[in-house]
Specification:
Mean pLDDT: 91
Strand order of the largest sheet: 2-1-5-3-4
Low-confidence stretches: none
Radius of gyration: 27 Å
Helix content: 25-40%
Distance between the termini: 51 Å
């Protein structure tokens, strides 16, 4: 497609989503504070204004067309963008020096680029609500109402823990009723933090705890995740440095760490244990499909939303917790150090890993979790120029890993590693993978004897909800499901450097692929130190010792577990009736669920096809972002209307009758 950009004829892609992305593709970055390519178009900030055929319009909300005449930078557009920035800054907490985003804040960068040194408008005082109740910290005084966090939480993660409240000058982003974030169904994935352009959403910084442990003379051990090495490079301007992990090892030892291990070693261990768990379930034909459990955001999501599937989760701990358990139970004895004197620091790309280390079932295994951004802060504040630090290998015995272990840092790594382990015991004739839709891949592995093992790899919790609902209603039949809460897997974790969008995540995946390719070991089965760990301590996969050290449990975290209300009970056997539950929780009630309930009662009383339908009221299906919700047997009808529910119910009843 040909358009005219700043007086020059330019060719752009025919399928560009909007003008903003089309211009970005040809090297013109239009300022914006509320645009995310992964979510719906919002158009709130108005920073992306351009002139189109003589009219000023937002570039994010218009599709390019043949012959479009665009001017991206005129005196009028400059003044309008500058004025918008001044208005935003007039209501923004401008105490930048103590802000977590100081130096990498999008609003701060634009203020610098547009040369704003004073604000023409009086400062507008905003509600100064700071919520420290969870790992994710909210500071409403820094919120610019761009809506990025709301759309990511709702549209991508399907959680809806936060939303807009009030109007005009009183508008805020908050959980329902102004509650603390810790009381919601937030899974601490940190995607709201990753996409917030200011410091309104950050995460708890735990570096002070690490320094305190050093002061107290603790035996500090560090361990670093694969995804960290793929992103710390961009943060420190070392993108072509393939030995950056070794430089970090040397740096950490220089500031007082006694040992530094590779979490990829523990990924080999987890894949090995989980593959045998999966094989046992396949042979017994129980607790299938098996869901992977390495991602703590996904685990918490399952506990909130799908407690009926908790038995299907692999009970193997994540690599972080597995290695923590091994170090405290076995390695401490080997080096003659009291486990209580060991302070284990995990370096992760993920905010939910902080929560995982504090779970009641796992507390004490890992003492502190710092993110990639905290590691960057640690390096910068120390004065070290990492480029000049010679690389050192990870310490043995937990410093050796395979390509499979390293691949845990991106989506598909866990499932791929499980297959690698199984290949040593089950020969595969053919392995085929297809992308069902973005974020969902289906793999079918055919064995020598003709059996097919099906697995799904999914990232994003909204996609995960689709997969589980398809499994529940019988549309999708698989044996194993790998879930990563964040888009593209751990490389897109909430603790990764800014920016943290789809373009950057694709680049990180490429870097990690290159790092993986260097490793000479292919499969966990080739990791001598990992196999030696079984010989010395764990005996064999799924042994009593192995279960004690490497496995864990989960619990139902549904916020409301009240009994359903019998509204229109049906005195027939369970297998002969269809149960409809209408959510009467606050969010659903406020959006009309009571009217739907009333209409459904009329349907059941009048329609012959609905005579075996039982109506109940329930209080929460943990899907507030898509309210109102109605559950037909095990199927959730989200954003329900009476007609929508009737249509689904009628089809369901007919299919039940055969």
């Amino acid at each position: 497609m040909k358009i005219i950009v700043n007086g020059k004829e330019t060719i752009i892609k025919d399928d560009s989503r909007n003008l903003l992305e089309a211009l970005r593709d040809i090297g013109i970055e239009i300022p914006n504070l509320c645009y995310l390519s992964e979510t719906s178009i919002y158009g709130a900030c108005r920073m992306c204004l351009v002139e189109i055929d003589g009219q000023i319009m937002t570039s994010c909300s218009i599709k390019p067309y043949e012959g479009m005449n665009v001017r991206t930078h005129t005196p009028e557009i400059y003044e309008m963008r500058r004025g918008i920035l001044e208005l935003i800054l007039a209501s923004h907490n401008r105490d930048c020096t103590t802000c977590e985003r100081n130096g990498n804040c999008k609003l701060q960068r634009y203020a610098e680029e547009f040369g704003i040194r004073k604000i023409r408008f009086d400062k507008l005082d905003k509600s100064n609500i700071i919520d420290y109740s969870s790992i994710i910290i909210r500071d409403n005084s820094k919120c610019i109402l761009c809506g990025d966090c709301v759309r990511v939480c709702d549209e991508i993660q399907s959680i809806g823990a936060i939303d807009f409240a009030f109007r005009g000058f009183e508008a805020q982003v908050m959980p329902a009723f102004g509650d603390e974030l810790s009381t919601t169904n937030c899974v601490l994935c940190g995607q709201c933090v990753a996409h917030c352009p200011t410091g309104a959403l950050t995460f708890r910084n735990d570096l002070q705890n690490v320094y305190k442990a050093m002061e107290e003379g603790k035996y500090i051990i560090g361990m670093m995740a694969p995804a960290v090495r793929a992103s710390i490079q961009e943060e420190l301007g070392m993108e072509d440095d393939v030995v950056v992990a070794g430089r970090i090892v040397n740096f950490l030892k220089s500031i007082g760490f006694k040992k530094v291990f590779d979490v990829a070693f523990a990924a080999d261990l987890v894949a090995y244990e989980e593959a045998h768990e999966f094989k046992e379930r396949l042979e017994k034909g129980e607790k299938l499909p098996q869901f992977t459990s390495c991602c703590p955001g996904w685990v918490k999501f399952a506990e909130h939303n799908y407690p009926e599937y908790l038995n299907n989760l692999s009970t193997v701990k994540s690599p972080q917790q597995a290695l923590g358990s091994i170090i405290k139970k076995f390695y401490a004895k080997e080096i003659g150090v009291n486990p209580e004197d060991i302070y284990l620091v995990s370096i992760m790309p993920c905010t939910a890993k902080k929560f995982e280390a504090e779970r009641e079932e796992l507390v004490g295994e890992v003492d502190a979790v710092i993110t990639t951004r905290e590691l960057s802060q640690l390096i910068r504040s120390s004065g070290f120029n990492l480029k000049n630090v010679p690389p050192m290998p990870f310490d043995r015995p937990y410093g050796l890993s395979s390509q499979s272990g390293l691949s845990f840092g991106k989506t598909g790594g866990v499932f791929g590693s499980v297959l690698k382990v199984l290949e040593s015991e089950i020969e595969f004739d053919d392995i085929k993978t297809e992308e069902i839709e973005k974020g969902i891949r289906l793999t079918k592995a055919t064995t020598k004897d003709g059996k097919v093992i099906s697995g799904v790899v999914v990232f994003g919790l909204g996609n995960t909800r689709k997969v589980i609902d398809s499994i529940k209603n019988g549309k999708l039949k698989v044996d194993i499901v790998e879930v990563m809460a964040c888009d593209y897997g751990c490389i897109g974790g909430g603790g990764q450097p800014y920016p943290n969008d789809a373009r950057v995540r694709t680049k990180r995946a490429k870097i990690l692929n290159e790092v993986v390719g260097i490793d000479v070991l292919i499969s966990p089965n080739e990791n001598y130190h990992m196999l030696s760990l079984y010989e010395r301590y764990l005996e064999k996969p799924l042994s009593h010792v192995s279960h004690e050290v490497l496995h864990t449990t989960y619990r139902n975290r549904k916020r409301i577990n009240d009994e359903d209300i019998e509204i229109l009970p049906l005195p027939v056997e369970e297998d002969k009736k269809t149960t409809v539950k209408v959510c009467l929780g606050t969010s659903c009630y406020s959006k009309g669920s009571y009217d739907i309930l009333s209409d459904l009662i009329d349907v059941v009383n009048k329609e012959e096809w609905a005579k075996n339908v039982e109506i109940k009221g329930t209080f929460c299906v943990e899907n507030c972002g898509k309210s109102p919700n109605v559950v037909i047997d095990d199927t959730i009808v989200s954003e329900a209307t009476t007609e929508k529910v009737k249509e689904v119910l009628k089809k369901h009843v007919k299919s039940e009758k055969g």
